[in-house]
Amino acid sequence: MPNGGHSAHRAKDGEPQPIPPGAEGVPSKRDLASWWKNFSKRAPKRDEEKEPPPSPGIFGVPLATSIRYANVAISLYDNEGRSYIYGYVPIVVAKCGVFLKEKATDVEGIFRLAGSEKRIKELRQAFDSPERYGKGLDWTGYTVHDAANILRRYFNQLPEPIIPLEFYDRFRDPLRNHQSQAVGPMDGQGNTVGEFNHDKAIRWYQQLITELPPLNRQLLLYILDLLAVFASKSDLNKMTTANLAAIFQPGILSHPAHDMAPHEYRLSQDVLIYLIENQDHFLI
């Protein structure tokens, strides 16, 4: 038996070979202490492990980001009466939309009159906070004007309008040469859009809407339907398509390069008027 610190094993040629350090069955206390010291340096302590970053809110957050953690499924019915999930919209849009449809279609000046800043701040905090993001919100204590204002603010604070900037010019092209004076003072006396090929324009917008990213398409169709409901009762609420377009155009169809160009956002408002008035042609 060799006198060295390591035992030996017999190789094929009959000569003893030293076992590589660390291959013995029982390490020494010094080896264990050294290993543990090095392991402790490498391994993160449990209380130092990084927690996953909290989900951001929804206001000022891109639609594609917030929809992942704050969404509501939208169901439709087929010709045989069976429901199916059409898509998803932000919780804040669905909650406000349902509440406003139920309580505010005959309220004069809805979307135009201000709510309570204190209550609107509370609503924003509710819709901005995980894990529910307002899904269980109770509207008791809030008015329809609070809901209308928080809905408008959500759209206006999107980093990009519902119709993405890359589609901006294409959505305006059909009406570019037929711009009317439909959007003037908010007196509810707007004219219809100038004469042009209506059927061709409908087909154009149908195609454009199919090309939108799915989340943008679903949200656009949802808000067009909502606005059409209020426009259909404009004799009571005084919110014509022209009035609604003037209010919602910045969050739906706008471009930062045209923020200071009144004739440009009037064209965008005319486009939105047309989309609201013909929204029943666009459900895909």
TrEMBL record:
Gene3D superfamilies hit by this protein: Rho GTPase activation protein (1.10.555.10)
Pfam families tied to this protein: RhoGAP
Segments of this protein annotated with the region Disordered: 1-32
InterPro entries noted in UniProt: Rho_GTPase_activation_prot, RhoGAP, RhoGAP_dom
Organism name: Lineolata rhizophorae
Biological process according to GO: regulation of fungal-type cell wall organization; signal transduction
Protein's recorded name: Rho GTPase activation protein
Domain Rho-GAP residue range list: 74-283
Molecular function terms, GO-annotated: GTPase activator activity
Record-level GO cellular component terms: cell cortex
Keywords: GTPase activation
Entry keyword Cell inner membrane: no
